[in-house]
Amino acid sequence: MLDYDEYQKKLEEAISKSTFRCRNCNYCYSVCPLYKSMEGFMVNGPSGIIQSIYYYLKWNLNDAEQKKNLTEILFSCTTCNACVIACEELSAGIPLLEIIENGRKLLVDNNIGPMPFQRNALKAIYAKGNPYNFDSENRLAWAKDINIKKLPDEKADMLYYVGCSVSYDPEIRNIAVSLVKLMKNQGTDFGVLEKERCCSCAANRLGDEFLFQEMSQQNTKSFVESGVKSIVTTSPHCYNTYIKEYQGLDNIEIQHYVHMLHNWTTNKKIKFEKKLNYVVTYHDPCYLGKHNGIYEEPREIIEAIPGVKLVEMKDNRKMSLCCGGGGGRMWTEVKEEKRLANQRVEQALAAGANILAVACPWCHIMLQNAIKDLEQEENIKVVDISELLAEALAL
Questions:
Q1: What is the mean pLDDT of residues 84-109?
Q2: CA distances from 213 to 46, 135, 147, 262, 339 (A)
Q3: Taking 70 as the threshold, does the pLDDT of residue 2 lie above it?
Q4: Of the candidates 263, 294, 318, which is a domain's last residue?
Q5: Cα separation of 17 and 9, whole Å?
Q6: What value does the CA radius of gyration of the chain take, rounded to a whole number of Å?
Q7: How many whole angstroms separate alpha carbon 321 and alpha carbon 312?
Q8: What single string gives the DSSP state of each residue in 183-250?
């Protein structure tokens, strides 16, 4: 159990020590999606965000309006990790994102943050096991007509961890269905948890350390008791959370589904049934790419599909433009001059693509909404990589 006073002191010291190393070179602003989408104020970029929390602590600011402004500054960040990469390559190499997330934890611990709708997501995770406040009994509704092993009562080598968004959002449920079809096609021994809960990535990103610890301990217990050898996730956010932020999973191999599909296509295990005459561009999810360096595997999967032409957007790989949904922004509106997802769809159209391929449920939601907002439904659509592969296999 974390000691309250010791926890706060540890956060404050970490923030002050790391922020003091900032050279104010502002290289981080050149890659920051928040800064690119906002009005250009210094607090809308990485260096400005960490200076804001630093001086909040140094000057002991307690005015209600100042606290509200600070909350908006810290919780608008998409946590894409672009600033961290830029600082490591061009400047002092300070842990910018760690400072921002420590600042969020400090605000939450003092009951200042996060923003109102983000608070609702945290309450829903605690009460319902998902940030959308849907009933847990309906979590497996997407699989009602599919024969799948239910763990832990049944046993399997692999756990397919579906995740909250795909489980509940009817517009993207087909991602889970496609992955199940692909795994069955390849003879994979897998199952899903009968009582799956949120990975609690959102709780950690939004600064609720205590909720995250409670959820992670429950999930770790469920995973270990299921007896699986490996876990495959739909979302890069779940994948990143399990490999970097959970404890007790050392004996279980954790993969994002891209790893699995890449293995099949690379080793010629997949027998394609038809050509797909699509011009495809791939959007790098931040928590697969910039956080974990997985850039080429998704592209190699796409290029393996007969008939597909892969084209690149202006911003790709480590320079990829964030969709705007990470860091807890799925549950709040940020006043942008031009929405990040809209900018990304425009890049895809400029590249000549008619398919915008994704490997993240949140990216799928954000980019599909942008296509509707831009009234481009007839020119381009968002398709998950798993859906492309399933279509090429005629599943």
A1: 95
A2: 27, 22, 33, 32, 33
A3: no
A4: 263
A5: 12
A6: 21
A7: 12
A8: HHHTT--EEEETT-----HHHHHTT-HHHHHHHHHHHHHHHHHHT-SEEEES-HHHHHHHHHT-SS-T
* Structural domains of the chain, count: 3
Contact 222, 200 (CB under 8 A): no
pLDDT of residue 339: 93
**CA-angle at 306, arms to 304 and 307, nearest 5°:** 125
338-365 pLDDT, tens digit each? 899 999 999 999 999 999 999 999 999 9
Can you give the CATH number for the domain in which 220 is found? 3.40.50
Pick from 238, 262, 181, 184: nearest CA to 360:
238
- A 10 A CB-CB count for 194 gives 15
Q: And the tokens for 203?
A: 């709780």
For residue 1, pLDDT over 70 is answered with no
Residue 349 is encoded by which pair of tokens? Answer: 């159209």
Is-contact 258 288, C-beta < 8 A? yes
Q: What is the CATH number of the domain that holds 44?
A: 1.10.1060.10
Which residues form the domain of 231?
119-263
Q: For residue 10, what are the contacts with CB-CB under 8 A and spacing of at least 6?
A: none
- In this structure, which amino acid lies at residue 75? F
To the question of pTM greater than 0.70 for the whole model, the response is yes
Query: Are 169 and 177 contacting, i.e. CB atoms less than 8 angstroms apart?
Result: no
